[in-house]
Amino acid sequence: MSLERVTITIPSETLEAVRSAAEREGLSVSAWLSRAAEHAAKIEAGLASAEEAMAHLPPPTPEEQAWVDAVMEDATRPAYSDEYSAHSAHSDDRARGVA
Predict the structure, then answer these.
(1) What's CA 94's distance to the chain center, in Å?
(2) How many helices (H) and strands (E) does the chain have?
(3) Which pLDDT tens digit goes with each residue over 38-94?
């Protein structure tokens, strides 16, 4: 793999977050940003492929859409309804020796 030097401009707050994350992971800022950019590019390529594939399919039936909506609601629902419940459950886990 060949490497190229580039100059980028990003918000100061973002750069500080990147520096902190890179330090925690034992990476240089350049290596951390390179990995993040590669990850984002793969996600974008996957989304583009999915959009292309979906363009060849008919729209979902109302039943299919209802199923997708239910699955997505389930998948994105927080595990706990509020901060107190999450904190209490985590404290209970620690008391039982669960990390």
Answers:
(1) 27
(2) 4, 0
(3) 999 999 999 999 999 999 999 999 999 999 999 999 999 887 765 555 555 555 555
